[in-house]
């Protein structure tokens, strides 16, 4: 095989016609472009898919774990409602009830440490003795009224 072009073949061939050696530079370029495009679209998909999780993490939301789980569920089930729910949760500020309750519990514990409160059983016995004493006084007063100076 010689590298000469056949005399009847056109001498001005377009660039997309492969040469006689079988190399096809356009196919190689398109293959590289296709692989690069698939990788780019894949990374774009992953970035978009992790958007709610990154939003919740950046703003230190309490519901960060819930948003992350919703993102994983939507990834594996291909149900977009979970992704939308995670996005909405990442945007909403839920009120923090645990911090004030923890503060209240700590304050009550400090107050309880400073007050000398008897144990629960002792307070029941003390209340019963006081109630018996009041009952006896009331009974004596009632007797006196009945047998009074009438």
Blueprint (SSEs and pairs):
Elements (H helix, E strand, L loop, with lengths): L24 H25 L1 H8 L5 H14 L2 H12 L6 H17 L5 H27 L4
Helix pairs in contact: 2-3, 2-4, 3-4
Cα separation of the termini: 150 Å
What is the tally of helical segments? 6
Oligomerization: single chain
Report the major sheet.
none
Radius of gyration: 43 Å
Uncertain runs are none
- State the share of residues found in helices, binned by percent: 55-70%
Proportion of β residues?
A: under 5%
Structural class: mainly alpha
The whole-number mean of residue pLDDT values reads 80
Give the topology string: H per helix, E per strand. Answer: HHHHHH
Total beta-strand segments: 0
Shape: rod-shaped
Describe the 3D structure.
The protein has helices spanning 25-49, 51-58, 64-77, 80-91, 98-114, 120-146. With 150 residues, the protein is mainly alpha-helical. The longest helix has 27 residues, at 120-146. The radius of gyration is 43 Å and the shape is rod-shaped. Helix 2 runs antiparallel to helix 3 (64-77). Helices cover 69% and strands 0% of the residues.
């Amino acid at each position: 095989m010689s590298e000469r072009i056949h005399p009847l073949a056109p001498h001005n061939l377009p660039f997309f016609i492969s040469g006689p050696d079988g190399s096809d530079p356009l196919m190689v370029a398109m293959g590289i472009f296709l692989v690069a495009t698939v990788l780019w679209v894949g990374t774009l998909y992953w970035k978009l898919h992790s958007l709610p999780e990154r939003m919740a993490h950046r703003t230190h939301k309490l519901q960060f774990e819930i948003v992350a789980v919703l993102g994983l569920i939507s990834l594996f089930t291909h149900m977009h409602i979970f992704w939308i729910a995670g996005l909405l949760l990442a945007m909403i500020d839920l009120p923090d009830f645990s911090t004030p309750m923890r503060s209240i519990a700590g304050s009550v514990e400090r107050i309880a440490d400073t007050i000398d409160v008897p144990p629960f059983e002792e307070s029941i016995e003390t209340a019963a003795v006081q109630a018996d004493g009041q009952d006896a006084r009331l009974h004596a007063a009632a007797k006196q009224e009945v047998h009074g100076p009438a």
